[in-house]
């Protein structure tokens, strides 16, 4: 039983952002019980922090909520039909529309689509809200035509150096940020609740 110190996982950039935080402890028990190792969280997962649950029952179309996972702000965004429709329109303007490059976490297979989420819940975007340039927190979502930096598109804006992201967290071309926002592992545990940091394959 111990508190895990939050650690940046791969990127030093995150160290600029991440304050220490505390997640539920899972360490200490494993040495006592000879569980099947494949069912246990990896060492990396245990070091990083436990998965967190989020109740999304009150999240309405166009709204965003933020939960803390491993000290990172994870956005959960309920996209409107208009925001979803914008995704295919902006493809040519994006640096990496198919998310071939990943930032700090590998892209889950179920998020390898333009919605970058589980297609059976394609309105629900789950991304780490940390700019891939130097770790500022972007603002948004902004509706279409409400922010000059985004032109006619809806999306997110990083206030530090002007990187813009579409409604799937994909960075636009010719911006300081080199990569799309991370999609963490997540899964539904009920119709109204998701868990972040874990999916059918285990913990991140
Ligand atoms: S930190 Fe976001 S654009 Fe520089």
TrEMBL record:
InterPro entries membership: Rieske_2Fe-2S, Rieske_2Fe-2S_sf, Rieske_Fe-S_prot, Rieske_Fe-S_prot_C, TAT_signal, Ubiq_cytC_Rdtase_Fe-S_su_TAT, Ubiquinol_cyt_c_Rdtase_Fe-S-su
Topology of this chain in the membrane: Single-pass membrane protein
Parts of the chain that traverse the membrane: 16-36
Cellular localisation: Cell membrane
EC identifiers of the protein: 7.1.1.8
Alphabetical list of CDD domains matching this protein: Rieske_cytochrome_bc1
Highest taxon listed in the record's lineage: Bacteria
Catalysed reactions, semicolon-separated: a quinol + 2 Fe(III)-[cytochrome c](out) = a quinone + 2 Fe(II)-[cytochrome c](out) + 2 H(+)(out)
GO cellular component: plasma membrane
Pfam families: Rieske, UCR_Fe-S_N
Domain Rieske: 89-195
Subunit structure: The main subunits of complex b-c1 are: cytochrome b, cytochrome c1 and the Rieske protein.
Misc remark: The Rieske protein is a high potential 2Fe-2S protein.
Biological role stated in the UniProt entry: Component of the ubiquinol-cytochrome c reductase complex (complex III or cytochrome b-c1 complex), which is a respiratory chain that generates an electrochemical potential coupled to ATP synthesis.
The name this protein goes by in its record: Ubiquinol-cytochrome c reductase iron-sulfur subunit
Organism: Pandoraea captiosa
């Amino acid at each position: 039983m111990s508190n895990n110190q939050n650690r940046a996982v791969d990127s030093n950039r995150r160290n600029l952002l991440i304050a220490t935080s505390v997640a539920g402890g899972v360490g200490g028990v494993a040495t006592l019980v000879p569980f099947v190792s494949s069912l246990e969280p990896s060492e990396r997962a245990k070091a990083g922090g436990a998965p967190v649950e989020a109740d999304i029952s009150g999240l309405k179309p166009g709204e965003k909520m933020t939960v803390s996972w491993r000290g990172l702000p994870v956005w959960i965004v309920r996209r409107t039909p208009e925001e979803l429709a914008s995704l295919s329109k902006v493809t040519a303007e994006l640096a990496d529309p198919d998310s071939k490059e990943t930032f700090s976490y590998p892209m889950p297979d179920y998020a390898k689509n333009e919605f970058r989420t589980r297609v059976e819940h394609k309105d629900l975007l789950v991304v780490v809200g940390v700019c891939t340039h130097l770790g500022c927190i972007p603002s948004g979502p902004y509706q279409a035509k409400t922010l000059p930096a985004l032109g006619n598109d809806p999306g997110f804006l990083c206030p530090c150096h002007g990187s813009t992201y579409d409604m799937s967290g994909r960075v636009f071309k010719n911006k300081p940020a080199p990569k799309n926002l991370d999609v963490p592992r997540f899964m539904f545990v009920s119709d109204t609740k998701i868990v972040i940091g874990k999916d059918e394959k285990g913990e991140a």
